[in-house]
């Protein structure tokens, strides 16, 4: 009996290990480095007239390698933080390099990326007191500028697909808050929403998603990511918790890091390669390198884990595996008393006919 239980556990753990290896959880080394031997996209600075602000405004537009004006492209609107402008992503994140490398690897759908100035006011430069009341308010005003001025300009100027299924919005920090506010607030315009390290301008979850059922029906992908050492993590966490309680599918992605471009570049890489293609919602809780809260967390673990449960065909044995930074923490439950008494792992608890034990074994995957 002891040998049978042990072999069954090993089989089930092997199945779960293979399951975990299907996903790329972090950008690979060199993802943000220029490669001269591949095709490159093109950057342009454009001006559009803003009726909202009453002046001409600037945006940076990235068109993908082998851009063809006879082809229609989806669009990602990529927003900056409170201290930035339309050039911040280029200066700090080099999205053109990240996207060129994704295309060379065949991992992303060709798209146009528009990087606007999200501070919608006549003097929209990031100078002086960037926390001044009028400058902070201008980030909210940008919603009208985006919807009524910038998007129409892009659709008149570039060969783009104009339906919501082919329009995405993402942003970092203050732009992450704008992304959640504008994206979830205008699901008739955006089906793909990606927030990186959302700032305090983020509305409450109840305001963002007043009707969870409608939100579930309209969203293609909602991505919320943040560094585990980021002082603003709470804004992403509260949104995630509300979405989880209301069964709104989303990816909650926590990685090691603070409030910086290391985190945001990885967020852009991970989010971009999911855009404008079929996504498997059943895998949403497996992306995060540091996991998401699960009932099977090992005691004392620094980070919560992703979990997966597999049962034996006869139902007598259940293995719950939680992946945590290269280790598989597992809990084994026995329904059969004989198996319980002969556990190869050693009995830790015996509650209601279940035995459980938590151990760590290496898994051949970057978790």
Throw out a few tags for this protein.
367 residues; 4-stranded antiparallel sheet; 10 helices; alpha/beta
Would you mind describing this structure in some detail?
With about 375 residues, the chain is an alpha/beta fold. The chain is about 30% helix and about 25% strand. The strands form three sheets. The chain has an eight-stranded mixed beta sheet with strand order 1-2-4-3-5-6-7-8, with helices on both faces. The protein has a four-stranded antiparallel beta sheet with strand order 9-10-11-14. The two termini are about 35 Å apart. The relative contact order is 0.13. The model is unreliable at about 15-20, about 295-305, about 320-330 and about 340-365 (pLDDT under 50).
Q: Provide the gyration radius in Å.
A: 23 Å
Query: What does the overall shape look like?
Result: globular
Major beta sheet, strand line-up: 1-2-4-3-5-6-7-8
Described by strand count, sense and barrel closure, the largest sheet is:
8 strands, mixed
Q: How many β-strands, per DSSP?
A: 14
Task: Summarize the helices and strands and which ones pair or pack.
Layout (H helix, E strand, L loop, with lengths): L1 H19 L21 E9 L4 E9 L11 E5 L8 H6 L1 H10 L7 E5 L16 H25 L9 E6 L1 H12 L6 E5 L8 H4 L3 H7 L2 E7 L5 H13 L5 E5 L5 H12 L33 E6 L5 E8 L2 E8 L2 H5 L7 E3 L2 E3 L1 E5 L5
Parallel strand pairs: 3-4, 3-5, 5-6, 6-7, 7-8
Antiparallel strand pairs: 1-2, 2-4, 9-10, 10-11, 11-14, 12-13
Helix pairs in contact: 3-9
């Amino acid at each position: 009996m002891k040998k049978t239980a042990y072999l069954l556990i090993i089989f089930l753990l092997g199945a779960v290990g293979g399951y975990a290896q299907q996903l790329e959880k972090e950008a690979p080394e060199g993802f943000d480095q220029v490669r001269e031997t591949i095709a490159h996209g093109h950057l342009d600075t454009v001006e559009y007239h803003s009726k909202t602000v009453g002046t001409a405004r600037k945006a940076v537009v990235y068109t993908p390698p082998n851009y063809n004006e006879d082809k229609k492209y989806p669009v990602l609107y990529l927003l900056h933080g409170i201290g930035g402008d339309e050039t911040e992503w280029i200066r700090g994140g080099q999205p053109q390099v990240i996207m060129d490398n994704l295309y060379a690897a065949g991992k992303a759908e060709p798209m146009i990326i528009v990087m606007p100035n999200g501070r919608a006011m006549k003097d929209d430069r990031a100078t002086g007191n960037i926390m001044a009341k009028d400058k902070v308010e201008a980030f909210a005003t940008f919603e009208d500028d985006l919807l009524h001025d910038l998007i129409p300009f892009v659709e008149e100027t570039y060969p783009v697909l104009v339906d919501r299924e082919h329009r995405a919005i993402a942003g970092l920090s203050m732009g992450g808050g704008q992304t959640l506010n504008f994206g979830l607030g205008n699901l008739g315009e955006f089906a793909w929403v990606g927030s990186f390290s959302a700032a305090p301008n983020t509305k409450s979850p109840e305001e963002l998603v007043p009707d969870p059922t409608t939100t579930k029906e309209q969203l293609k992908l909602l991505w919320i990511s943040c560094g585990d050492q980021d002082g603003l993590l709470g804004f992403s966490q509260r949104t995630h918790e509300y979405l989880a309680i209301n069964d709104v599918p989303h990816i909650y992605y926590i990685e090691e890091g603070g409030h910086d471009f290391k985190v945001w570049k990885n967020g852009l890489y991970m989010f971009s390669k999911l855009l404008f293609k079929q996504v498997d919602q059943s895998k949403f809780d497996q992306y995060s390198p540091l996991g998401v809260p699960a009932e099977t967390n090992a005691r004392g673990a620094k980070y919560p884990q992703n979990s997966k449960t597999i049962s034996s065909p006869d139902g007598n044995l259940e293995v719950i595996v939680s992946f945590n930074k290269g280790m598989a923490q597992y809990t084994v439950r026995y329904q059969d008393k004989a198996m319980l008494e002969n556990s190869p792992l050693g009995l830790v608890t015996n509650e209601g006919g279940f035995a459980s034990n938590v151990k760590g074994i290496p898994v051949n995957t970057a978790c």
